[in-house]
Amino acid sequence: MAAAMQVDQLIYGLRPLNLDTTDMNLTIEQLAANYLQQVCSVQEHGPYRFAGYSFGGLVAYEMATLLANRGEEVGLLALMDTGAQLKFRRNLSSDERKRLRKIYIADRAKKYARNLIEGRVDKIWLDASQYVGRLKPIGWKIAQRVSQILGYPLPKVMRSQSLMFTAMLRSYTPKEFRGRLVLFRPEERSPEDDVDPYLGWHQYPKYGIDVQFVPGSHATMMQMPNVATMARKLAPYLEHSLNSKHNGF
Question: Which of 96, 102, 150, 180 is 20 to 30 A away from residue 20, measured at CA?
């Protein structure tokens, strides 16, 4: 995404912690506090501008919330396909869940068949790994075995650290963010994700939320050429935040 940006500016990326050597009870709040120490060592005061993808979006949100509560200015908070909580779809009835799941499975089957005809086994494996990654631990063992048979490396989303990520997700409850949020969502998504266009975020940002759609799926929205569209849609928010004197856009 940094390479796709058309704005002449500095962009910092935060390197993930080595979770293999950390306490299994690590929380998103602790991750955010650790990252903020790194951020503030480079930039002591705002305005700050954050962007986070998937699980990283929750960490970015917590960081922005902590800074805003300190009275610092957060001019931009952009999340890329990040849901507020694992529980935000629980208002669906059982029958509605089954209906949406059937639609989703039918759509996945058509996509897999198209990729198979085109010889894109790599795409099939990437999409399937995202689904299996949501299953219970037995799903992880199956995925590891399939990975060995196919000869494709197990995607990062499927590695053992993801079990820790899931635990952190389940224990995290977002707090109010004293600013405005922009949420980027992929055009290829599960019907369940359309039940709430804000993915559970609408109740948290004090000054509202904007939703922008970009081509691709959760896995491919950050790849070229899809990420170029995201960068183009992000640019006006970034420019506005540069000219803003208040907390938010």
Answer: 150
Bridging pattern class, strands 209-214 and 181-186: parallel
Read off the amino acid at residue 141: K
Q: What is the pTM of this model?
A: 0.73
List the structure tokens of 206: 């004090």
Q: Which residues are CB-contacts of 180 (< 8 A; sequence separation ≥ 6)?
A: 77, 205, 206, 207, 208, 209, 210, 248, 249
Is the CB of residue 80 less than 8 Å from the CB of residue 57? Answer: yes
Give the model confidence (pLDDT) of 95-104 as tens digits: 766 665 666 6
Residue 249 has pLDDT above 50, yes or no: no
Which residue type, as a one-letter code, is found at position 114?
Answer: R
Strands, DSSP E only, in 7-144?
48-53, 74-80
Separation of CA 24 from chain center: 21
Domain 19-88+173-243 has CATH 3.40.190.80: no
E strands, 84-196, where? 181-186
Residues linked to residue 53 through DSSP beta bridges, in sequence order: 80
Residue 27 banded pLDDT, cuts 50, 70, 90: confident
Using only C-alpha atoms, the chain has a radius of gyration, in whole angstroms, of 19
Which residues, listed in sequence order, are joined to residue 79 by a DSSP beta bridge? 52, 183
Assess contact for 241 and 49: CB atoms under 8 A: yes
> How far is the first Cα of the chain from the last one, in angstroms, to the nearest whole number?
21
**Please, are residues 82 and 57 in contact by the beta-carbon 8 Å criterion?**
yes
